[in-house]
Amino acid sequence: MGGRLARAFRNFNVESRARREISKEKPTPAPRHSTSRLDELTEHPGIHEEIYRKDDKLLTLLKDVYVKSRDPPVRVKDGGGEHLPCKQEEKRLTKLGHLGDLDVKKVPKGKISIVEALTLLNNHKLHPQIWTAEKIAVEYSLELKEVNSLLEFFIPFTVQEFPKETKKAI
Fold it and tell me: What are the start and end residues of every segment in region (Disordered) (predicted)?
């Protein structure tokens, strides 16, 4: 409904408004810069000759120029050493691996994979007396402070199933 009303106002008296716009005096355009005109080349034929004329003095100076370039001496690279990191990181094998080729095989010391993190959090939750922060730190080559932070701030999810009679009450 609103579209019809808007269209009616937009189309009201269209022809007279269009005639009024067409009959208005057109503004004169700004003058063009003199270098943008192409007809100057046709007015002065000497410009074409000047452009295409060879200057003998400049040609002789150019012929006198001699450039010697030398490549820097090539260094022999020993066995692809540029691919090795500067600091050799110690790596350890991961504890788990259920996904075969998709699993991470080696992890730098001081770090753990996602699967290991979930496993150690779950083990600590189920058996906190056995899986203490000190044991986790030794087992996974981590710092004790980081393990304490991990156990404090990250909690794995638990799945709870409600009996059928309590489902109706909820």
Answer: 16-46
Pairwise CA distance, residues 155 & 79, whole Å: 47
Overall number of domains in the chain: 2
CA–CA distance, 47 with 53 (Å, rounded to integer): 10
Around 85, how many Cα atoms within 13 Å sit in the side-chain half-sphere? 4
Question: DSSP state, 101?
Answer: G
- Write out pLDDT tens, residues 61-113: 988 888 888 888 887 666 555 555 556 666 666 666 555 565 677 778 888 88
Q: Which pair of structure tokens corresponds to residue 167?
A: 């489902």
Cβ distance 132 to 120 under 8 Å? Answer: no
Place of tokens 């699993």: 103
Residue 121, burial from CB neighbour count under 10 angstroms (0-12, 13-18, 19+): middle
Spatial separation of the C-alpha atoms in residues 56 and 161, rounded to whole Å: 98
Domain of residue 61: give its range: 36-65
Provide the 10 A C-beta neighbour count for residue 156.
Answer: 14
Residues 102 and 148 in one domain: yes
Q: For tokens 């106002």, what's the residue?
A: 9
**98 and 46 in one domain?**
no
Task: Please tell me whether the overall predicted TM-score, pTM, comes out greater than 0.70 for this model.
Answer: no
